[in-house]
Amino acid sequence: MPVEVQVLAYAALLQYAQFLLMAVPLNIQLGVEYTSGPRDEAQEARGIPGRLKRAMDNHFEGLILFTIAVAVVVLGEAGSALTAKAAWTYLAARILYVPAYASGIPLLRSAIWFVGFAATFVMLLAAVL
């Protein structure tokens, strides 16, 4: 299995972990009756549960681009040491992003996000150039 695909699998597992990490405090804050209901009237999670939810949503967004990058690298047979390092960098950044976001550290969170975003961009560039 190409390294980039392996890292993609780990990134998907991270998404599951983020969901589980977010679900318990969110259900406690908003109540199981609301979260298991139709949610006709929106309620916003606040504090750490809200930040964990937004971090998870942000990973969904980043995961889309990362998945495209992995597909381009693997299907284009453009895997290299650079694309493998960029994939691992993306994953490390996404792992670090969760506690940075949950703790409410804005500049650090943004810097970590940018590292993951740039790593994905590097993968795409390396594949097409």
TrEMBL record:
Its main location: membrane. It is found in: Membrane. It comes from the Bacteria. The chain crosses the membrane at residues 63-91, 111-128. SUPFAM superfamilies: MAPEG domain-like. Keywords: Membrane, Transmembrane, Transmembrane helix. InterPro entries: MAPEG-like_dom_sf (IPR023352), Membr-assoc_MAPEG (IPR001129). This is MAPEG family protein. It comes from Congregibacter brevis.
